[in-house]
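Issue: copy button drops trailing tokens. Both records pasted manually instead:
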Amino acid sequence: MEERANYFKVNKDTWNKKVDIHAKSKMYKMEAFKAGETSLMPYELKALGNVSGKSLLHLQCHFGQDTLSWSRMGAKCVGVDLSDEGIKLAKQLNAELKLDADFICCNVLDTSQYVPQNFDIIYTSYGVIGWLPDLKPWAKMISERLKPGGVFYIVEFHPILWMFDYVNGKPKMKYHYNQEEVIYDEYEGTYANQSSKMVSKEYGWNHGLSEVVNALIEAGLQVEYLNEYDESPYDVFPDLLQQENGMFKMKNQLFPMIFEIKACKL
């Protein structure tokens, strides 16, 4: 456990450094966002539909753009994230935009210790579960925080993508699809600004689809659907080609890039 605490500390330090870089990046379109543009992608908008009047918990919210986008749509939102710099900026944006979301800095696995209320919707997206060593406590927390009849939704990069090492610019298959051992990466730059001189130091874990689904089922959730798609909403992997719909694909694509799961608590 002490070793894992160090992993989380290193990851937190890295994410704290990323916040300012990401907030100024083209990818996060901060000025357009402040002017009213949603940061949400088509998959999550379609999956959750009209959220007006519903309570929503956003797990691993970074600096809160998606949380605040849901808030603009009428949801009563709480966002949690490991990065105190991320939460600090999220609170500033919430105040500046005159919205009513709440933001709490904590490890996502400890959410129930910091957020006692239950929610109609729990939401998380793109690049989240790879920071967690074990999905069972994550799923248990989700079940604890959902109201009966509540909905959990995740859209996430496909686990096949994390079998590759991208550090040298060319994908090289290196890691197991379900890898229990921690993976350490150290590289210059960040996905939102690859020319940045910051050094990212990151500990992560690979989780196959069966692990995700079974963790949710074991925690008492009923899976409504699991879908896989051959596209990414973000240009964050090497040599992607933008499609007419704005999404990105690989040149000779042989596997999915994202998956989504919708589940409910009975």
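Record 2 (pasted manually too):
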Amino acid sequence: MSEIIVAGEPFNIRLDGDADAPVLILAHQLGGALQVWDRLAPALSERFRVLRYDSRGHGSSVANPGPYSIAGLARDAIGLLDALQIEKAHWIGLSMGAIVGQAAMLLAPARIGRAVLANTAAQLGTPDLWNARISAMRADGGAGIASATQERWFTPEFCEAEPAAVKAVMDDFRATPVEGYASACGALRDVDLREAIRSISHETLVIVGARDPSAPPALGAYVASVIEGARLVTLETSHISPVEDVEGFLEATLEFLTAPEPVARPALAAGKTAPRRKSLQRVLAGRAPAKKAPAKKAAAKKAPAKKAPAKKSAAKKTAPKKSAAKKAVSVKKGTKKPGGSRRKGARGSLRTVRASKLKQ
């Protein structure tokens, strides 16, 4: 770990991995510290230059009195990139760290590559909830609210199975400076990015915990639904998913971060326009394009206009029956074709990450 100065203020950071590898920022949760990533960092640093840092008001970084803002916390992260002369970095954020990541993509889109947003939301909780938490922290400190926090952060089964891992995270929580925690709560209370994130165009993976009471899955699903092309992965965890399911979290993030870049569509030749696509409603309803309907009606009106001899008209009366029969057969066959209007499903199964890569 080392200290770096950003705008005259000290931040605690740690860099791991090849200096020539793509940079990956890891941003921790409210009341956390960079150590929350300890069990993932060894495997991630095999592919990336991993930059971990203690957020303002947390760990060993500056803990000045508030108020803080999410935009200000995002500027801290961009300031770290500037100080380290890093042009661009991917982002993995947990809870508060993922909300800061959303703000960083909005404030400095060219500086952020792909983003993993875990156990988070675009707007979280109510002002009353955050004000009560600020009061409790100032009255009792981290030790006084640690028990209730642990119940929200981890499932009972994980607490029983991995007590040492839970203790390490909760020790960092208890050590969080009171003013730093309270000021970060104020930043979370005041932020609402629900509309702003619609403009994000970064490749994004959203991870939710199926048993997360702090950031319920529906809140993360909303983030994934409004960021164009974002993917959603659900893990069977509570709030601190990268600790509770190391393998599942690592598997999802590595597949996403190392996937090939999407192939760009070829540009259209000058003077040409893109073909018109059917609307989603029309595809789901199985309706033909609107332009074809008038053509059929016009043909039906023209037939009666010509008066033919009685014998020929009788002969012609049988023709529509045959064409109607053919048309009926064609419709029947069409309905039997599988997947006619189905969209492609989710990606294939995630690649398996060897357990030997994980730090025990």
